[in-house]
Batch of 4 targets.
Target 1
Amino acid sequence: RSNKARSAYVAMEPRDALDYACVKNAILQKFEISPETYRLRFRNDVVGEDESPRELYVRIKGLYEKWMLPNTKTKEQIGETIILEQFLKVVNPDLRSWILERGPSSAAEAAKMAEAYVTARRAEGPFQLGARHQNYGACSGSRPRLWPDEP
């Protein structure tokens, strides 16, 4: 690990190597750590073996702050990030990949991209916009309960 960090530092311009923010960014890039890395950790994290509730909270909050960068974004920008994430989560996996390859900066931009994709695919036949979901039971209203008091 330290060799990788050292190589990032050595490759920097001398004046940039004196700037902490530049050094930090170079090392994060070398390790391929980005807000997406923190988003995935935030969404997929589990409780540590000996972790207390307070430690879990602090760790999750830290991942959120590294993912969302709330000190540099407005609440609208944070909301847009969450909406984009959910939009990408529910669409067809092929469509999701196609959109991600184009790097939308907002959910609205992703929706426009999706419209173009769907329009082009409809000429080939029916296109399912949403991802296929697990069938939770024979009854149409059957689904897993997320909270104990949920109807």
Target 2
Amino acid sequence: MGNTSSMLTQYDIEEVQSHCQDLFEQQEILSLYQRFCQLDRNAKGFISSDEFLSVPEFAMNPLSQRLLKMVDGLNFKDFVAFLSAFSAKASLKQKVKLIFQVYDSDGNGKVSFKDIMEVLRDLSGTFMSDEQREQVLSQVLEEAGYTNDSFLTLEDFIKVFGSCKPEMDVEIPVD
């Protein structure tokens, strides 16, 4: 399932579909496999950070360095699982879980005020001052019953940010 000369069997397709909670149709998985093989330039069976950065949309993303920690070394099945959070069929919980992982850069299962501030800084750049970011974040946390000293678990994160209904339905280029 890893190199460009192999084809996916029906079993492979069904296994990937099951791994991704059937969020992709068979044809979509075949298209994603073609894209995976294009990115896996050395036919190693996984995609490196450098190969991900060859996708202009990914490289230009202000969160690309955080995302790279999540995607470096993904095999095809995990590549599709990662992309499934961007599917229009993915649940809000699946999308918020991906966002949580972006914020939880050290992977400890908790997001701190500092973690959220770093992401906000990456996203807003010079458009907002640190003081403005702190003020907005403090207000959001306070309204949800948390303080700047709180550490948010995934469940807490869903409680605080799950009602924001993030727009993550993006078109995934497969050609």
Target 3
Amino acid sequence: QGYVSLKLLTCLKKIKALTTNWYMTLAAAECSDLLELNEECTKVRRKEALPQWLMCSPTSRLLLIWNASEEQSAEDGADPGQPSLLLSILQRFDSPGDVASVWILHPGEELPKELQCYAKRHKELGQLLCAVMKFNSLESVRRAYSSLREEEKINGRGLCVVPLG
């Protein structure tokens, strides 16, 4: 039903800096216009769902990127190349210092252990030539994601990007 324990919330770092007493967290939740308590007053939830923009914001430092036009060329029998994918990705970043690492993943090859948990959810992993970029900070990945998504909307086909996490 979307409720979270007040005791659990009180243990979170930012709340713990203010109080370790869960009754104090309860008092704050009772005064909130955004939160509601369950009947036992032990759990809290938002009155309204999270805003859509927050749901779309990456919370992981990983982005999955593939070239939709190369996906089409592969279906047509053309040879999609690794260098063109890597170049098209790296050309879009003014500050490559934000990027911690880049994996180029070929169809049919075994995924790195760190990425195997994403394979069921993202069919592109292991089936298409794609790249996974790991960023140094959440702010860097959010900027890159927004920039690439905007470009994807403008150009239609081209680089496709989804956050992993």
Target 4
Amino acid sequence: MTLVGVLALQGSFNEHIAVLRRLGVKGVEIRKPEQLQNVTSLIIPGGESTTMAKLAEYHNLFPSLREFVKMGRPVWGTCAGLIFLADKATGQKTGGQQLVGGLDCTVHRNFFGSQIQSFEAEVLAPEVASKEGGPETFRGVFIRAPAILEAGPEVQVLADYPVPSNISTSPYSSGEEQKENVEQSKVIVAVRQRNILATAFHPELTADTRWHSYFLKMAKEIAETSNSQLQLQVNINYSQKQLNELPIFQ
């Protein structure tokens, strides 16, 4: 059975594990650095990002998480997990928080507002739907949700969403930052960059399993590519060894 690690410090890790179970995959709770050695892919769930960061720092998880991402292992961050994976975050609480990084983007924490401004909406994601079937829209659950304001050239945008009319009154945006946000007609809410998948919303809180299925297939493709490259390198090394062992005639 396939094993997928789920960071289980705080937040909706149980919900992710339940969806994985429905797809015939075992989710493994990850709380310590050494546990990452037992899995080849990882989900960082939604939750309270500052609290999760403090717990990750307490358990000395950040170095291992960064190495996991750097090694090209498949990682999916939802909501707070997206914030974790971003190279840059704005709108943070005083003092900020540590980030894992690896995703070339700038994310605004709580872009869509406070807890009472949480909402559900249909999100258009044709790339995911084309691979998983079904309608092109997905139910997006946005809970104190972040949004991606800028994404690098290697980042594939999977979904965006219109900026709500009430965003100018958000207590988490002010001054120039607020002006920048309001002038954008849309913000990015789902992306992929090589081994990293990230969503600003919570697919684990809906009955639709297609995002999880998409991540599992992505992880499988990455593993197969890695194995092919490893085998190619082995073949090259073997051929070179054979050449070196050939007799040299004068």
